[in-house]
Amino acid sequence: MDATQAKEIVQSTDSKIQKSIEHLNTTLLGIRAGKANPALFNQVTVDYYGSQTPLPQISSITSPDARTVLIQPWEKSMIQPIEKAIMQANLGFMPQNNGETIRINIPPLTEERRKDLVKQAKHEGENARVSIRNARRDAIEAIKKLQKEGLSEDLAKDFEADIQKLVDSYNKTIDSVLDKKEKEILAV
User: What is the largest CA-CA distance in the chain?
Assistant: First the structure.
């Protein structure tokens, strides 16, 4: 019975860590790499009739070329609130509207800005690592509690080793995700 609980702890830890990795990937999508990417606006929320609504839910966001993002609201009355939300999101863009669509020109990144974005990406990676370490700590504490309740020491050590293998594997995943994003940002 105790071994079953320990296996559940390992599985639960695995799913918590996977959520951290998913969050990291989602966050990194919002860090621009010099090219126009509609995903940059996924985190922007607009006041849509009194409720904060993600921009992709009230408009079509496309990238007609490498330096332009085109936002076509489903309702023309939403152009002003969308412009305001983009400005408040502090993405560093000046939206221009022609009464029907909002056009955003993406300026090329300076070397200094690229380095700042790499730092930001690494910071997000470190947040994911902290989340993984917290999940590992919680799991090992739960295993030790089971050991006090009768789980054999050998089994406890095996489960702790399994948890550490998970952590090591996901840390390598974070490293590769961050390396890829850094190359993407630094590519001119």
Answer: 71
> In degrees, to the nearest 5, what angle opens at C-alpha 17 toward C-alphas 154 and 153?
10
Q: Are residues 51 and 101 in the same domain?
A: yes
Token representation of residue 44: 């922007």
Separation between Cα atoms, residue 181 and residue 117, nearest integer Å: 10
Distance of CA 129 to the CA centre of its chain: 13
**Residue 28 or 173, more confident:** 173
Examine the domain organization and report whether 19 and 58 are in the same domain: no
SS3 98: coil
**What's the predicted TM-score (pTM) here?**
0.71
161 vs 186, residue with greater confidence: 161
- Name the amino acid, one letter, at 56: P
For residue 108, which phi and psi values (nearest 5 degrees)? -65, 150
Question: 59 and 94 share a domain?
Answer: yes
Spatial neighbors of 188 by CB under 8 A, at least 6 apart, are 34
